[in-house]
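G., the chain you wanted modeled:
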Amino acid sequence: MDSKSLFTGMFTGFVIGGLSALLTAPASGDKTRDSFKNFNWRSLNQRAASKGRGAVQDWRYAATEGFEAVDGLTQEMKRTYSRYKEEVEPEVEAIQHQVKEISDAIAELNEQIRKESE
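Predicted structure as tokens:
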């Protein structure tokens, strides 16, 4: 890249940027400087701190609600498992016992049929 074209481009950019800043400024330079000098920076800091505290409180509330929801879900799952152990598991064992009895009866019948067919 040619250094002459680089400097020409930079100069053109500075001129166009400066002109656009001068033409579009909302107030004169004196007024802008005065507004910066007289601006209440402490109130800005206080508002930002207040909003920060509010955000922290919102996060704490959301975290607390989340933990409570997880705790409630955990307790409900424990109750469901306890009910399963008390109500369903004995039924499953009874069904397994009946299946074993039926299987044994079928095996005996097969043995009898085999003996009779010999």
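The mean pLDDT is 87.

Shout if anything looks off.
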